[in-house]
Every structure is written in structure tokens, then in C-alpha cells.
Amino acid sequence: MAVYNGQATAVAKSNTIMNGLLEPIALQVLHDVQSENPLFEVFEREAVDTAKEIEEIIIGDANVEEYDADGKTTLSPRDTWNIARYYNDYEHKVYSTTKYRNEIRSISINPENEARYIASLVNGLARKRDDWTYDKQKTILKDIATTYPKLKAATITAGDSAAMGEALTIAIRDTIDNLRFKNFNFVANNIDNETSTKFKQRAYLEQIRIIVPYKVFNRLNIGWLASVYNLDKTDLLSKIVTIDTDDGIVYVIDKRSVFRYPQTDEILEQENAEGNFTTYFLHVNAMMGFSPLFKFAFIDASAMNPATE
């Protein structure tokens, strides 16, 4: 069977009738390797323009006490608790690429292709940034689950495909409901913590995101899950993010529990007049991380991963 997949190098052809003159390339087709970060909306926060440190504060609830008809303690203060976390761990990455003017002109068969090639070359800086950020964010999610095993909401046991899909759908529903109630559950601050105030937390439905490996997503009963919350499928799907991990871990989180604060995202260029080339640098300084003050849960659905079946 013939495979028409071309070859890695050009086949130079000479026209024998036209005295061996080299035949030109007929068409030059340029393609970008497109990038997409499905976790962008989950992590991204406002830009940090000045200074660096982020202070995050949970303002405690009021006190409750028995009614005192005599008002003996009316003028005494009623202090409540606050919890603060501070974040300042930024990563400064530099992405670079070089534009060689003479070389690009020599390989372009028309001015439009030359401009297209240069634009794609520079846009490749942002594509690489997005790829690196996405990989880092997947690692952060995995690290949270590894560091805080008590945040696990459920484990799906091995069985037939339909039964596992139903079990996972129910587990996601139960976890969403738990996140929506104000309680101590799934708050990392409250786990094995004897030195800090434990507090009740909740997430609103619009703040909850379900992050699912795409191999597992196809087993979910989206229609049934949407009906539980009186949503149409489109509304529910806007809360579901599919990612390309192979561990079968499903995350049900308050999106405030993870973050990316960008500070610098700037392209600079450096001309080399003697060599007739320009190098572009994309400087990205951003902080990504996890807030233990908000709800974060995960479900071990590794038994549903087709790679393990």
C-alpha cells in the first residue's frame, strides 16, 4: 500500500528540455503550530502592576452569645478572627527567537509569505509561553492532590464502563454540593492544622470548575448532571475544563483556590546591524500557585482511564 507522505528534503529537479534549468517550488504553504491553554480562565487573575506581594485575607464571621438583659458587656469589644496568606513566589521566564532577514528573503517565494513567516516567528513567543504555562498549571493541580491527599472526595472503583461513568457523575454531583455548603470540608487550611484558625468556607456555583481528563470526560452523563442544577448543557459545559492528563484525576474546585498573577509580559527586540538579524525576547514574570483558604477537591477516577483498562 502506497503512503503519500512526501519526504523530509526537497527533490531538486532540472528541466532537461530547458538546458537543465532548475524548476522552482510551485507553492509554499506556511502553518503555525497553534496553542491553547484550557486552564487560562481557571487560573488567570488581574495583573500586578506595582510591588509584588499578594495579600489574601479571609474576614471572620461575627460572634454569637446569649442575650444579656442587663447589658453588662455591651461596651466591651467583640473581636473576630481574620486569616491572611501572603504570596510572592514569581517566576521570570524569557522566550526568544531570531529573525534572519536575508535568509527569510531567500526562501520566500513572494512578499506575502515573507511577512507571514516573520509574523508567525514572533507569535511563536506567545505560543511557547502558553504551552509552558499550561504544563505548569497541570503540574500544580497534580502537586496539590499529592500534597493534600485528604482533599480526595471519592475513588471510582473498577467496573464496566457504564457503571463507572454513572459513579463518577454522582461523585461530581456530591462534591459540587459539598463545595456549595458552608462547612470545614475540602479547605487545605483546615487539614492537620493545629496552629491556625479552622473556618467554614463555601463556593457559589458560578465559582466552581470541574477539570476532567478528556479520556474520562466522554464517560460523564452531562445531561443528567446539568438537570440536577437546573442548567442547560451549554451552561454546565462552561464550567467543565478538559485537559490532556493520563492519571484519571478529576478536580472539582473553587477557582479562587488556584491563581496566576502576571506582572511582566513584554516583547523586546535587539538588532544586530552587522549580522542583519533581529532577536526578539518575550519577558514573562508571573506567579502561579494554590490558596489553601478556598475549597479544592479531587476524585480518583484512574480506573476509568482507557490506558489502564
Task: Report the span from N to C terminus.
Answer: 32 Å
Number of helices: 7
**How much is the average pLDDT?**
88
Tertiary shape: elongated
| Spatial strand order of the main sheet | 6-12-9-7-8
Strand content: 25-35%
Structural class: alpha+beta
For the sheet with most strands, the description reads:
5 strands, mixed
Tally of DSSP β-strands:
12
Could you give the order of the helices and strands?
EEHEEEHHEHEHHHEEEEE
> Compute the gyration radius: what is it?
28 Å
User: Approximately how much helix is present in the residues?
Assistant: 25-40%
Number of domains: 1
Explain the overall architecture.
The protein has one domain. With 309 residues, the protein is of the alpha+beta class. The protein contains 7 helices and 12 strands.
Question: What's the layout of helices and strands?
Answer:
Blueprint: E1 14-15, E2 21-22, H1 40-43, E3 54-59, E4 82-87, E5 91-100, H2 101-107, H3 111-147, E6 152-155, H4 161-180, E7 208-213, H5 214-217, H6 222-228, H7 233-237, E8 240-243, E9 249-254, E10 258-272, E11 277-290, E12 296-300
Quick recap:
With 309 residues, the chain is an alpha+beta fold.
Provide tags for this entry.
single chain, 309 residues, alpha+beta, five-stranded mixed beta sheet, three-stranded antiparallel beta sheet, 27% helix, 26% strand, elongated
